[in-house]
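Why should sequence recovery work at all? Because a backbone constrains its sequence more than one might expect. Tight turns favour small or flexible residues, buried strands favour hydrophobic ones, and helices have their own preferences. The token representation captures these environments compactly. In the example below, the structure is given first.
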């Protein structure tokens, strides 16, 4: 009987895990997310977002501006979230890097290093990320300044410096 109980338990666990995975893929729509945040949240349609006067694009993905987000930025399946209140504290290259990083998640998946690489290569190609700007990004994600879970780790900087000079597009 004990083994039967364990088997049923495992089945249940499997069911829960599958349910969660399906929910993570579907996720909320930008409208659902914004409604949950409240009247503060703003949905910016693709192509209409600018950061410090510079137009930023992430394909056809909209951006939700959310001052209550517990991080500078986040990526949900199908849209980006940025926290304007926190972004106001960092320099322009860092802001643009955060947007590009979250955009990287849209097209390259959940891996942080891959999103970092996508962002620095985009910055180099588009001309907004100089080697000095990259060092500002590195300072931003250094553990000492890490007031954010998402953006910390010095090893990520090493990878980004390599990626920045890599001619091969990742
Ligand atoms: Zn990330």
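From this structural description, the recovered sequence reads:
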């Amino acid at each position: 009987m004990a083994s039967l109980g364990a088997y049923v338990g495992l089945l249940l666990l499997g069911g829960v895990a599958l349910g969660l995975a399906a929910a993570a893929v579907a996720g909320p729509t930008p409208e659902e997310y914004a409604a949950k945040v409240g009247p503060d949240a703003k949905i910016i349609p693709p192509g209409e977002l600018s950061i410090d006067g510079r137009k930023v694009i992430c394909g056809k993905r909209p951006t939700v501006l959310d001052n209550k987000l517990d991080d500078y930025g986040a990526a949900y399946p199908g849209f980006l979230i940025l926290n304007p209140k926190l972004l106001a504290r960092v320099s322009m290259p860092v802001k643009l890097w955060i947007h590009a990083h979250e955009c990287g998640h849209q097209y390259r998946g959940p891996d942080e290093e891959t999103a970092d690489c996508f962002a620095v290569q985009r910055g180099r190609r588009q001309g907004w990320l100089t080697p000095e700007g990259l060092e500002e990004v590195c300072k931003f994600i250094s553990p000492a300044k890490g007031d954010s879970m998402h953006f910390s780790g010095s090893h990520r900087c090493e990878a980004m410096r390599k990626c920045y000079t890599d001619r091969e597009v990742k």
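A few observations help interpret the result. Helices lie at 2-26, 30-37, 84-87, 92-108, 112-126, 131-141, 154-165.
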